[in-house]
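The data are quoted verbatim for reference:
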Amino acid sequence: MIKSNLLFVCLLILGLACQPAQQKEQESTSSPSISAPQLVKVWETDTLMTTSESVIYDEFRDVLYVSNIGSVPPTAKDNDGFISIISTSGEVIDLDWVTEISAPKGMGIIDSSLFVTNIDEVVEIDIPSGVIVKRYLVGNAQFLNDITITDTEDILISDSNLNNIHKLTDGSMKFWMNDSAFHGSNGLLAQGDQLMVASYGGGEFYRVDRNTKTKTLVASGIEGGDGIVAIGENYLVSNWNGEVHFVDNQGNTSLLLDTKSKGKNAADICFIQSENLLLVPTFFGNTVAAYEVK
């Protein structure tokens, strides 16, 4: 989510949130040439969150976990972040389920463990007990952001400040990739031998071959790229400014949602395939909103 200078980043985030409204909320496609879905709002939580950044679905327990940064800047080791549990119908089950975290962002689940980025470390939470069982420090990290889990249970982690991607395997953290063309590597989505990457600073959406680490530009113009979910062979990509874009497998894009005029961002999204439900954490909006993908 971040460029190279921490102070600039924090000012940028706050500045974006204070920009005047540019468009009304939209729930329609913007290009008649693309067979894109529509988003129909189903529910939104009460404003109990505090800077809600990411949401993930726990299929086994049928609940959602929400990472809350707390106060900004999102690089402050102030220990005021927390993880919440909410239902798939938008009820807050446990607001302060896990605390003792400074600025939690991206999340991933393996078995009964929830992995969460926290500035310069990845925190492992035992889900049944809600206890932090291990912290994996990432050397020289500045702004760990998103997490994705591969089909071999490798954990890939983006560092948005440094354009780095790290890999956690069997408890061992290693540097995996750097590319300045990412312009702020943010959203990640592992798919077989491929890794999809959303750029925060440049608005690009890349496909990376995980074997060769060569990248291919899929789409551009998604400024502030944040979360990625797959919809069949296509994608939904959020940008932090408050938009959700549809990207088809040919790289064509279409704007589905714009909540900037309501002062709501669109951070690290989640998709529940069985319910055709897209979950959008609204960051400074302090909520999670749910949309049916039609």
In short: The longest strand covers residues 92-101.
